[in-house]
């Protein structure tokens, strides 16, 4: 479904990603691991088109997306929950979720029930400004906004960062439901090893901007964790 081939990307004169290659199959949850500053967010931005690739290729459903805009990628079925959530603080919760419909491949006027079914608190807050929500509530809102377009591919960048355990559990449940449904693939960048091991099918570890290790859950043993992830 998603294929990244020999990707190079960075900021200004700095090269952050070098020769990154990975794949995400339909219905699969692929987890991207690595210490802080190794390039996980840069990779997510490059896949979404927020950051232009300098070299390499990003393919989605066998279409070359490397030079396409973020909006075009979204309309092709890629949903994105960025690190930091990027909620529109002055817009209402309802308006924030409605923005997700802009990326829908079909012109929808109503928010799909499935987009908010796992976040029942959100409809009770529709009239509140997005900026008035707690960090955990904003994360739920960002998740619902991405799901509103009913994507086939979901990019999740550090969804558990800085939020309370109860909402982390909610997000885990949503990922598991999406996985069980089998229609949406997920690429998840996350620091919490316990979290990714509870939802992931396949794992990549970034080190110094390159893929240093990859494998299934059974291969993600203590030696690998100690070598690549322990601070």
Automatic annotation (TrEMBL):
PROSITE patterns: ABC_TRANSPORTER_2 (PS50893). It comes from the Bacteria. Signal peptide: none annotated. Residues 2-231 form the ABC transporter domain. SUPFAM superfamilies: P-loop containing nucleoside triphosphate hydrolases. Keywords: Amino-acid transport, ATP-binding, Nucleotide-binding, Transport. One of its GO terms (molecular function) is ATP binding. The keyword ATP-binding applies. SMART domains: AAA. The keyword ATP-binding applies. Belongs to the ABC transporter superfamily. NCBIfam families: urea_trans_UrtE. This is Urea ABC transporter ATP-binding subunit UrtE. The lineage of its organism: Bacteria, Bacillati, Bacillota, Bacilli, Bacillales.
């Amino acid at each position: 479904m998603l294929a990244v081939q020999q990707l190079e990307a960075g900021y200004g004169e700095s090269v952050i990603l070098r020769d990154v290659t990975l794949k995400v199959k339909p219905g699969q949850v692929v987890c991207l691991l690595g210490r802080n500053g190794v390039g996980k967010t840069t990779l997510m931005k490059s896949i979404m088109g927020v950051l232009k690739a300098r070299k390499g290729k990003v393919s989605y459903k066998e279409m070359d997306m490397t030079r396409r805009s973020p909006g075009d990628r979204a309309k092709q079925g890629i949903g994105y929950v960025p690190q930091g959530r990027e909620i529109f603080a002055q817009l209402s919760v309802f308006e924030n979720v409605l923005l997700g419909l802009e990326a829908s491949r079909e012109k929808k006027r109503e928010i799909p029930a499935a987009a908010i079914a796992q976040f029942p608190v959100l409809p009770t807050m529709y009239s509140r400004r997005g900026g008035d929500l707690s960090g955990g509530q904003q994360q739920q809102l960002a998740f619902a906004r991405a799901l509103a377009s009913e994507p086939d591919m979901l990019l999740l960048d550090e969804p558990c960062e800085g939020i309370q355990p109860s909402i982390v559990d909610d997000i885990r449940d949503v990922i598991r439901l999406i996985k069980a449904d089998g229609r949406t693939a997920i690429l998840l960048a996350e620091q919490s090893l316990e979290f990714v091991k509870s939802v992931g099918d396949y794992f990549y570890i970034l080190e110094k901007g390159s893929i240093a290790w990859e494998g299934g859950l059974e291969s993600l043993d203590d030696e690998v964790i100690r070598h690549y992830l322990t601070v």
